[in-house]
Design brief:
This protein is of the alpha+beta class and about 350 residues long. It is about 55% helix and about 10% strand. The chain has helices spanning about 5-15, 25-30, 40-65, 70-85, 90, 105, 135-150, 190-195, 200-240, 250-265, 275-280, 285, 295-320, and strands at about 95-100, 115-120, 120-130, 155-160, 170-175, 180-185. Helix 7 (about 135-150) runs parallel beside helix 9 and helix 9 (about 200-240) runs antiparallel to helix 13.
Length: about 350
C-alpha cells in the first residue's frame, strides 16, 4: 500500500485527522503581526512568548511523571477547533463564519473561536472555547472561570479580531458573550461523522445547542445581579454627594419587576427567560440609563440578547424539523443543567 493510500485509509478510520493543523484554518487565523500599530502590541507579543514557554515547560514536567497529554489527545484538541472552522456552515447555517483567534486571545482571553452570523440586518458574534476533555467537569470549571472574570470586572472580549463577514471590523471586540463546548475524546470521531452526514447532522446540532443555550441564559442572569451590586455601590456614593437622580416611579417599577423576575428565574424558572429578555428589549431606553446598568453591561446585554435570540430560533427550528433519535455514541445526553448559586460560592 502506497503512502497516499495508507494516509487516506487512516483518515477514513480516524476522520478527525484531516482537521489537525489544517492549512485553511491557519490561513483564516489572524496574526498578531497584522496589529503592529496597536500600542500594546510589543507587550502582548512578549506575554504570548512567555505563556507559550510556561505551558511547554509545565507539559514536559507532566510528561516526565506520566500525566501529560498524549500526542493523540493533543491532536484531537486541535482537530475539534479546526472542525468548527471548516464545518461551521454545516453546523450553524450557510451564512455563518467561524473565525479562529490569535495566540494572544487563545492563551490570555481563553477564546478559541468567534462565531459570526448575519441576523436581522446585523452581525451577531459569540466567543467559543472548545476542548476535548471530561465533559461535565470541564464545562463547570471553565464556566466558573468565566464567571470569576466578570466578578473581578475583567472585560471579556477579543483583543485582536478580524471579521470575515465585515472587512471593516478589525481590532478589539468588547463585551461579547462566551460559551464552552466540550466533548470527550471517545466521542470526537462520532461527532464529526454525525455532522458530516446530512441525515444525522441535526443530532450533533442538538447536542451543541442544548449546551450553548443554557450557558447564555446563565451568563445573562448572573451578570445581571453583578451589575445590580455595582449600581447599588455607585448609588450609595452619589446619594452621599447629593448627585443621585432617581428614576420616575413608573420606570422604577419596571426595573424592580425585571429584577424580581430574574431572581425567580435564577431559582429554576428558566422557561421564563424569553419574558425577561422581552422586558429588556422593550424598555432599552430605561435600562440604558447609568443608574440602571453600567455602559459595559448594557452593551453586553444587547450582545447576549441578540445571540440568545438567534440561538433560540435556530434551536427551535432544529427540534421542529427533526425528531431527535438515540444513536449509540452520539445521543449525547440531555444537555447541561443551568447553574445554581452553589456553583460560584
Amino acid at each position: 500500500m502506497g503512502l497516499e493510500k495508507f494516509s487516506k485509509k487512516i483518515e477514513k478510520e480516524q476522520p478527525y485527522l484531516r482537521y489537525v493543523n489544517n492549512h485553511i484554518v491557519e490561513k483564516r487565523r489572524p496574526k498578531m503581526e497584522e496589529f503592529k500599530n496597536n500600542p500594546d502590541y510589543e507587550e502582548n507579543k512578549d506575554l504570548v512568548e512567555k505563556l507559550e514557554g510556561k505551558i511547554a515547560k509545565e507539559e514536559n514536567e507532566k510528561k516526565e511523571i506520566g500525566i501529560g497529554k498524549s500526542e493523540a489527545r493533543e491532536n484531537k484538541s486541535k482537530a475539534f477547533e479546526g472542525f468548527f472552522v471548516l464545518e461551521g456552515k454545516r453546523i450553524f447555517g450557510e451564512e455563518a463564519e467561524v473565525v479562529p483567534t490569535t495566540k494572544f486571545d487563545d492563551l490570555v482571553n481563553k477564546i478559541d473561536l468567534v462565531l459570526e452570523v448575519p441576523s436581522e440586518g446585523k452581525i451577531i458574534r459569540l466567543g467559543i472555547d472548545v476542548s476535548v476533555s471530561d465533559v461535565e467537569m470541564n464545562i463547570k470549571n471553565k464556566a466558573q472561570r468565566v464567571n470569576q472574570e466578570r466578578i473581578n470586572q475583567r472585560k471579556i472580549g477579543i483583543r485582536y479580531f478580524k471579521s470575515i463577514l465585515d472587512s471593516e471590523i478589525k481590532g478589539e471586540l468588547k463585551n461579547i458573550p462566551r460559551v464552552v463546548i466540550v466533548i470527550s475524546p471517545d466521542l470526537l470521531n462520532n461527532f464529526i461523522i454525525t455532522v458530516n452526514n446530512p441525515k444525522t447532522s441535526f443530532i450533533a446540532k442538538n447536542y451543541l445547542f442544548t449546551r450553548i443555550k443554557p450557558q447564555l441564559e446563565n451568563q445573562f442572569v448572573y451578570e445581571l445581579f453583578r451589575n445590580r451590586e455595582r449600581i447599588e455601590v455607585e448609588r450609595l456614593g452619589k446619594e452621599k454627594e447629593g448627585t443621585y437622580l432617581r428614576l420616575r416611579k413608573k420606570h422604577q417599577e419596571i426595573v424592580d419587576g425585571f429584577y424580581d423576575l430574574a431572581k425567580e428565574i435564577s431559582k429554576g424558572a428558566w422557561q421564563k427567560m424569553p419574558e425577561l429578555i422581552g422586558i429588556f428589549d422593550v424598555n432599552r431606553e430605561i435600562f440604558k440609563k447609568n443608574s440602571v446598568m453600567t455602559p459595559e453591561f448594557f452593551e453586553f446585554s444587547i450582545n447576549i440578547k441578540n445571540v440568545l435570540q438567534w440561538v433560540s430560533d435556530f434551536f427551535e427550528k432544529i427540534q421542529k424539523e427533526n425528531a431527535i433519535p438515540s444513536i449509540e455514541g452520539i445521543a449525547l445526553s440531555k444537555g447541561i443543567r443551568h447553574w445554581d448559586a452553589t456553583d460560584f460560592s
